[in-house]
């Protein structure tokens, strides 16, 4: 058998850049996927995603595979912007805690000895960066259909997506909040929800909330009998991910102009739901025809 030199594998039509914010501070790592063809006359639909290091590969592959068979999938091509951090791993726990946590936030003990305290409450600043700096930068590199913008977040990212909806509801047309941490900090999110409802904005938006089967009161089979079984059961009584997400969908659906839904994904836990909901975000962001189209 002949030997050949291995070469790195790259994501098709995807670039990566460390983006320095205008006000200074640490950069974000921006993954940008733009289809390698002329944009439609109206521009590309676009999907923004938090936790970019963890989701970009799945998102690009899901979009490319389904767009290759549009008639059978209802998924067209589009631009994907995944916002991550200049780290080797899937997450930067310290920075994402700040970026994705709604204000006013709190301070917590370090994740590891000898590292900084964990702070939350920077979601307003992060959202301003997306709106004021990142979106114009993306628009300078690809023609965008501003009427077809979507935002996806998982866990803390799902919490951020809801905060963004409540505070800047015109920023996106489609909002996907997967396993959102609605319980966080005694449901501080509710204050923003109430202000959103009272403002009664003129909207036409889709909101998709979701949870996994094992984010309910049920344990995953591999967790039953494990040393931390009781601890997990007690934590479920606090997070109540499926219950809170389902109730949030029902409440949002009552807001004029909001079409909200809840999805429970069989066989999934808090982390395994990630690729499932990334795919759902692709399907929602790049849908050719809405499900209620006639």
Query: Helical stretch count?
Result: 10
Q: How does CATH name the architecture?
A: 3-Layer(aba) Sandwich
The rounded Rg comes to 19 Å
Overall pLDDT metric: 95
Please name the fourth-level CATH homologous superfamily.
Answer: Alpha/Beta hydrolase fold, catalytic domain
Per CATH, what is the topology? Rossmann fold
Tell me the series of helices and strands, N- to C-terminal.
Answer: EEEHHEHEEHEHEHHEHHEH
Termini Cα gap: 58 Å
Count of beta strands: 10
Shape: globular
Oligomeric state of shown chains: single chain
- The total number of structural domains is 1
| Computed structural class | alpha/beta
What characterizes the major β-sheet? 8 strands, mixed
Helix content: 25-40%
In percent, how much strand structure appears in the residues? 15-25%
CATH class: Alpha Beta
Contiguous low-pLDDT stretches (5 residues minimum) are none
Widest β-sheet, arrangement of strands: 1-2-4-3-7-8-9-10
